[in-house]
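User: My instructor asked us to take a sequence, write out its structure as tokens, and then describe one feature of it. I'm not sure where to start. Here is the sequence I was given:
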Amino acid sequence: GRARGTAGPRWVGRRGLGPWGEMAGFLLSAGPESAEETHHQILQRSLADRKRGGPHEQIRSPPHRLQNTRSTEIMHSSLHEPLAAWKTLEPHKPHWPTTWRRFHLNHGIRVVDNDTVVVSARDKVHKTQRGLIRSSSGCATYSQTQRQKAEIEVGELAEIMATSDVTWSPKKLELALKERRGRQGVWAHYDLGIRAFLSSFPKTFELYGKDGEFVRLKRARCATVLDHGEDAMRRLARARSEDAARRLAREHSHGVLQREPSPRIPNKQHPDVPHNQTKVAEPLLSLPSLKSNRMKVGFIPYADVTADRFRSSGE
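Assistant: Let's start with the prediction itself. The structure tokens for your sequence are:
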């Protein structure tokens, strides 16, 4: 048999098994000296330890995680072509379709990950001589799969509220969805909270009462979702931003969901009047779940992106 005191599985000879001598050479389980968990096993077990919500997901997309772990090509539903180790994986940028080329002289063949979407934030409005222009202070990224789940859930919530005359509260609406559809909402799966989820669609739902204890449709008996799914993902990404939380929230652990900037029409007769200036975005909702949720959303200011480019070029 294997010498005692060494780690790993033990081979037991014919004599060591007694009446079961015919099972000579049977591989027994590892001894107590090798029962310690490895670092990888500890991380895998920590993914299953949760008090609520669904299982914890990885931050990176599956093609990105599998790219450097195997030599064969990777086939995934979010890829239009197989991903090899010598190809470059890039996120999908729907607002800049002309900037992407499949073959690049320095980067080689580039493959688009359609589940990881990067868009401009479009959170600023400026007045010019020719009118109003909308710009961005950064870029937001989100998961296309989670966006589709949110669009399905918000459509079902609007349908439930449009076909009933009940005075709805967020908790009552959450229970109604679970009774009719037999599942929890996407806000419970990703620890977002139904109040933060409803506030991400301000054109469709309206929270009213003290601390938003009731909810109603902006257009009564209208089951049409007026908000775009991409705008909702932008709001969640900006709410998680640390800069916005430090400026608008009293506690750093709270995320802030902002109102969209709505500029006033300028008055040419009195251009210096304060009411002609652009309205400042006011905080709409401040909740800790806006920062601690497990939605794959993120916001990066353009200043940070420029600094990273200069830093990489200097190196």
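For the description part of your assignment, you could build on this observation: Residues 5-33, 248-254, 275-283, 309-315 have pLDDT under 50 and may be disordered. Try explaining in your own words what that tells you about the chain.
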